[in-house]
Amino acid sequence: MALSPLDDHPVHQAAQVMRHVTTGDRNFYDRYYFNCHAASDELMLIVGLGQYPNLGVTDAFACVRTQELHRVVRASRELGADRMDTRIGPFRVEVLEGLKRLRVVLEPNEHGLSFDLLWEGTIPVVLEPRHFLRWQERVVFDSVRMAQTGRWTGHITIGETEIPVTPDRWMGTRDRSWGIRPVGEPEPPGIQAKNPGTFYWLYAPMRFDDHAVLCIVQEDEQGRRLLEEAVRVWPDGREEYLGRPEYRPVYAPGTRDVTEAVIAFAPPGGKPFDVRCTPLLPVHLMVGTGYGLEQEWRHGMYQGPGPVVQGVTYRLPDDAARMWGLVDAVGRFEYDGLVGHGLFEYWALGPHPSFAG
Fold this sequence. Notes:
This protein is an all-beta fold. 0% of the residues lie in helices and 52% in strands. The protein has strands spanning 28-37, 44-52, 57-65, 69-78, 91-97, 101-106, 113-121, 126-127, 131-135, 138-158, 161-165, 171-180, 199-207, 212-219, 225-233, 239-241, 246-251, 258-265, 273-284, 308-315, 327-335, 338-349. Strands 1, 2, 3, 4, 5, 6, 7, 8, 9, 10, 11, 12 and 20 form a 13-stranded antiparallel sheet that branches. A hairpin with a 2-residue loop joins β21 (327-335) and β22. The radius of gyration is 20 Å and the shape is globular.
């Protein structure tokens, strides 16, 4: 029987039971993402939880970064029949008030990281443009995402140290995305080996005292724009389109590590402005979390009936050579005398006009 408890709710969008998504693509996913920081370089916590219905897997991770530490706890189990059950070993996400308030929990465990955190949005959730990308005739991205800035209440425990998290200091961004993107065990590359692809990316949701700015830039190896978003959002739901964002990063010599950047906005009929971006604390998100570096643990990869729970700890700067790939940094953002903070996420994989080689 393919029925599940979710079928008793009036939420169907197709002539299918809720356990079945409307595509047979193995890469369908449904994911939460959260980050938490104190608008400084002291600590950043990143949490993700995903379901992969066509792979029969659900998994989660939490990554905490301090000046000296990069620690990950991750868990996986078979998805089972009830997609409303987000528990994966010590992890769970509870939706307390849809689009507004959520609880994110990693219960105490043997790996030296736990937390119990309440999320409250400071702006309404924003639906971003659909992300569609085809490589060598195959659709590899076809997803939608909603995003929100917010604040946190609760506590984080690292080792024996409990850190109180209060909404006057601790903020972050979250998103929910679902659709198709590469997940699970590696597939035979086939003709895709001729086109390994490029990924030039900026994602910068930023929160100021009375509004937020959400920005996305993705370009191909020629600098052609594949995806973009630029919108200013107020807590009462007002939105202002900010035109085509222009992203100008500065790289550390000999690397693709961004040391600072400018994002230029030109609202149609409005006053152009530049946002100066400073990464305060970089988190190399692909290290230990399942985003693709470790071939034995990737999002959606079957680890057995589970729950399987693992911990990974690296010390900095001793293990700095492992830190590569997509960067999620605590970001400081400044424009017109205003100072805000948020997520500065970037990656520069493959050729692009902004750098040589």
